Amino acid sequence: MKEVARGDRWVKLISLSLLVGLWYAVALLPAKSVFPPPHVVLLYLIEDVQSWAIWSHLLATLSRIFFGFSLAMAVAVPAGILLGFSGLAQRLFGTWVLIGLMTPSLVFIILVYTSMGLNDIAAVVAAAMTVIPVLVVNIWENAKAVDSKLVQMARVFNLSTLKIVRQIVLPQLAPPLLASARFGLGLVWKMVLFVELLGRSNGIGYQIEYYYQLFNMGRVLEYTVFFVGIMLIIEVVILGGIEHRLFRWRPAARLG
Amino acid sequence: MAAGGTVGLGMSVNIAVKNLSKEFAAHGTGAAWKALDGVNLEVASGEFVTILGPSGCGKSTLLNILSGLDTHFTGSISFTQGDSGGTARGKPRIAYLFQEPRLLPWRTVRGNVEFALDAAGFSRSEWKGRCNKWLELVGLGGFAEFYPLQLSGGMQQRAAIARAFSIEPDILLMDEPFSALDELTARRMRQELLDLWEANRHSVVFVTHNSLEAVFLSDRILIMNRGPSSRVRDEISLNHLPRPRSYEDPAQFETQKDVLARLMRHVD
Ligand SMILES: Nc1ncnc2c1ncn2[C@@H]1O[C@H](COP(=O)(O)OP(=O)(O)OP(=O)(O)O)[C@@H](O)[C@H]1O
Ligand SMILES: [Mg+2]
Description:
The complex is a heterodimer. Chain A is mainly alpha-helical. Chain A is about 80% helix and about 0% strand. Chain A is built from 10 helices and no strands. In chain B, helix 4 runs parallel beside helix 5. By secondary structure, chain B is α/β, with parallel strands linked by helices. The chains are: A mainly alpha, B alpha/beta. Chains A and B meet through helix 7 and helix 8 of A and strand 5 and helix 2 of B. The structure holds adenosine-5'-triphosphate and magnesium ion.
């Protein structure tokens, strides 16, 4: 296991260096001033993280992500599970989900901003709305995978229905739900930037738009690298940690 | 069958099945598949009965009905308290060992046994003692805190056996519990099963298509024919074979040949 991990680390290092190399290659193309090389961006970043501004934009964006993500999960988890287990719900609301999927995100955002005004609550709702249909479908698919053999076993042992849900169904749904959560987080944070760009005056998305207007690609890339880095840490450290704790019982599965 | 109070005294129970029939609606073709057609059988209190039959004859279907999982059938099933001869109140406590262990992979071995104790209504203070006792008896004393996926197939099946016995069932239903194991492990597990059963004497309905296993374990063998329209076609008492039994015993070997010959008659 340790050998595998060490080899893995090398591969990751090589892959990262390749990416940086590719960046240099692009930066050396004729339009040099537009697309700065990595070390310039890094210098911008080192300069900026020492001041409060970039952190306040990050905080604004992260809180929108947090609330947008929570709202999206709060709607999508029960809806997805309901659709997975109830034929009636499927017939009633299946089409809604489909329409939601087909509607462009831009339309959702515009609709929410025009009806709720250009404020933070609207931004959160808009970000959540754009990802809810995708999340619902994702969870709906996963809800179908619950092992009926274990449910039968529990029934023979005379377990009450409530306990069957708590002790048999939910633990089986936990891994796919966590996967859905990671997937949802990835969707929400991209949408939040988009929502900020369209109707807020702070946040990472707004900053990227602002520097884009000034055609300052160095700053655009600086904010991008900064934000992607933070999100990577959140994803790997926090969600990865939860996953590790929840799924200790799957020793073999971790090799894959 | 309504879920009422349990008998739950660890007493064994007589089982009487009369004229039990079960049809599956066939998909597509429209014709129904008569899986069971007029099954009659009785199991005396504390008796070890094995149902022997070819694949697809409806053995699992029968156990699903006996266990209460499947309630769509015609005919009658009655459970009566063994010793007193009176009618059991409510539903007897049933343990069902499936062909696969069906353990909860996210719980430790101890957690899996406690799951059954909880479901059967044992008070929390009893869990630890019972759990330790049964895990010890199936040879998993040192593995209580392991997760099922960290155990071999045979150990998992042992954990399932501990789970089944720990609730002190009135009736034990077993659906080919050893068929996924290698013969050596299976032999050891059969012996362990008999030891546990000798000590507890609940009524057992054991399903298999292995005649060697049937002869080694049972008081009585019931033979079912290949479907459709399966029912109990033949019955062989094994009271002439003393316990403990051994695979090398010539009398047992002769009996097995006889059982196999009689099984063949109902396969074609
Ligand atoms: N849910 C179902 N729907 C339709 N037909 C079924 C269903 N379950 C079982 N059957 C049919 O009923 C018959 C008996 O099945 P069952 O699983 O009880 O056989 P079995 O004796 O346990 O076989 P095996 O030894 O292979 O486990 C088979 O022909 C099977 O196709
Ligand atoms: Mg079967």
